[in-house]
Amino acid sequence: MTGEVYLNGKFIGSAEKPKEFAGQVIEARRKGLLSPELNVYYNDRTREVQIEAFRGRLRRPLIVVKNGKPLFTEELMKKVQNNELSWAEMVKQGIIEYIDAAEEENCLVAFSEEELTPEHTHMEIMPIAMVSLCTSLVPYGNHDPSARLNAGSKNQKQGLGLYAANFLIRMDMDTNILHYPQVPIVSTMMTEMSHYEKHPSGQNIVVAIMSFKGYNMLDAVIINRASLDRGFGRSTYYRPAAAEELRYPGGLTDSICIPDKEVKGYKSEDVYKYLEEDGIISPEIKIKEDDVLIGKTSPPRFLSSLEQFNVSSSERRESSVSVKHGEEGIVDFVMLTENMEGNRFVEVNIRDQRVPEIGDKFTSRHGQKGVVGLIVDPADIPFSASGITPDIIFSPHSIPSRMTMGHLIESIGGKVGSLSGRYVDGTTFDSEPEGKLKAELLSMGFRDNGTETMYSGETGEIYEARIFIGEMYYLKLKHMVANKIHARARGPIQLLTRQPTEGRAKEGGLRLGEMEKDCFVAHGTSLLLKERFDSDRTVVPVCENCGLIAVSDRYRKKSYCPVCGDEGKVSDIEMSYAFKLLLDELKSMCIYPKLVLKSKYE
C-alpha cells in the first residue's frame, strides 16, 4: 500500500513502501548526500511521510545508535580530546544528528549507555543537554514538575547580581547590583561551565519551613531582621537622567544653565539649589522628588516672523530635567559628552540603596517565588537546639500542590554542604543521590530527614512538631515595592478627555473597574461611586429646543444656541467630559445627537 510524501506540508508524490522510504532518506542524510537540516517523520496511522526543512524548528543533537551500540565510541572520544575530531565532522559522518520534534516521534532515545537495547535508535549526549542554560542551573531539576522548572528558569533571569563588572561607569536604564552575591553551595555542572562564580545572583541562607502567625500564607515569606542588618538582600538601584542641547531652525539652541527668574515656567528657587554654575548637579548630593538635576532653557515653541531675530532670555522657556515622581537617591556619576549630531549631551546617574522591605520579591531556584510578608526581630524568631535562627521562614503549604521536591532536596544538600564545608553537586539527572546526603547528615549528628527540634523565640517553648530546616540559595528579584508603590488624590489630567493620566511615571490615577464597582455596590456604598466616577465632570450649556450643545459667552455673561438663536432656552447640564467629546465626534460624522432634557424635580 502506497503512502503520500509531503515536503514542508506540500504534497510531492507517493512512495510504495513509505516506512522504508523514510529510512532511506535518513540514511542518505547521514551519508552526507542530503542536507543535515532535513528531518523526516513517518506517521504509521496515516502512512504519510512528512519531510521538513523549513525555518524555525527546534532541533537538538543526539548520538546515533545501531544494533544497540552507539556510533560514538571510546576511540572517537580520545580523538575529540586530542582535537583530532570536530563536532562538525561528527555531524557530517552521521555519528551525531539533529532531530526535531516530529522526527523524535519515530525515535527511541536512551538516557545512558547502560539503558541501551537493540530497539533504541538514539542516545543522549548528556541528559542535561535537553534543558536550557538557565534551566540547567536549577539543582535537582529532575525532581520538579516541568511548569516549576520553567518558572525557576525565568526567575533566575530576574535575580539581582553583578550584571557587568564596569557598572560604575555605565549608564544603563533601570539596573540593580546585589551587594554581597555568593556562589551556590548546591550547584550544578553548568554553574562551573558558565563561570557563574563571576556573576552570581543570590545568597546562601538558612530556610525553615513552617507557619508563623499567618504572615507567610499565600506564598509570602518571613525575613529575620538580623539577616538584613548583616547584608542579606541588600542592593543598589541605578537610574540615569539625560539632557541634550538641541539645535532648532533659525540658529536657536537649548542652553544647559541655571534658568533665570524671567524664563517662562520658572520653578521655585528651592528646586535649583543643588545646581553648580554650569547648571549641572554635583556627585554625591542626596536628592528627592522634583529636585532639578540638569538646568536647561529652550527657545519658545512657536515663533512669528518678527520674533525670529529678537529672542531675549525672557521669552525662553524652562525645560530642566528633574527627579521623577516617587523617586529619590544620591547622584552617583555625572557624564559630559557629545552625541552623534555633535550636540552637547549630559547624563546623570542616580543610585538608591535598597534594603529588603515588606512587598519585595524573593525566590528559590525552583519557581517558589513570594513577597516579604513580615520582617521579624531576631529575638522573636524561632531557634533550633544548636541556636541556629532561620533567615527566611517559608510556608509549608507551598510544597504539596507544586510538588517541588528539588526544593526540599536542595535544602538537605545545602545543610550537608555547609556542615561539611564542600559544594554539593545537584546536576539534573546526574546529581549526588538523596540517600548519600541523608547518610552524611546522619553521620554529623543531625536527623536524616532534615527536621530539627525548634523553640519559640517569643516564649522559649518547644514546638510539638519537628521543623524542616536547611540551607538554600535564594535570589532577590528586581520587582521591588519601591519601584511600584503608587497612590494619588488629585493630579494631572489628559488634554483631550480631561480624565486622569495613566501610569505611575505620569502621576496617573488608579482605575476603578467593573469588579471594583461591584464591590462598592455589594458593600452598600454605592454613593461612593458618584465621587469615584466624576474625574472628568463638566458643566455644559445645552439648548432645550434643539438638544445640541450651546455656547456660553463668559464676557457677556449670557448663553445662546448657535442653531436656534434667541428662541432656544439654554440650561447648564452636568455631564462627563468624555460624553461631551462623544457628542462632538457624532456631529463630525453628521449624526444629530439630540439631548432630550427633563427637569429632575418633575
Any overview of this molecule?
The model has no long low-confidence stretch (mean pLDDT 91). The strands form 10 sheets. A 6-stranded mixed beta barrel has the order 12-26-13-24-23-30. Strands 5, 6, 7, 8 and 9 form a 5-stranded mixed sheet that branches. It is α+β, with helices and mostly antiparallel strands and 602 residues long. Helix 7 (405-420) crosses helix 8 (434-443). It has 4 domains: 3-130, no CATH class; 141-232 and 363-476, DNA-directed RNA polymerase, subunit 2, domain 6 (Dna-directed Rna Polymerase Ii 140kd Polypeptide, Chain: B, Domain 6); 236-354, RNA polymerase II, Rpb2 subunit, wall domain (OB fold (Dihydrolipoamide Acetyltransferase, E2P), Beta Barrel), CATH 2.40.50; 537-588, DCoH-like (Alpha-Beta Complex), CATH 3.90.1800.10. The protein contains 12 helices and 34 strands. Helices cover 17% and strands 26% of the residues. It is extended, with a radius of gyration of 35 Å.
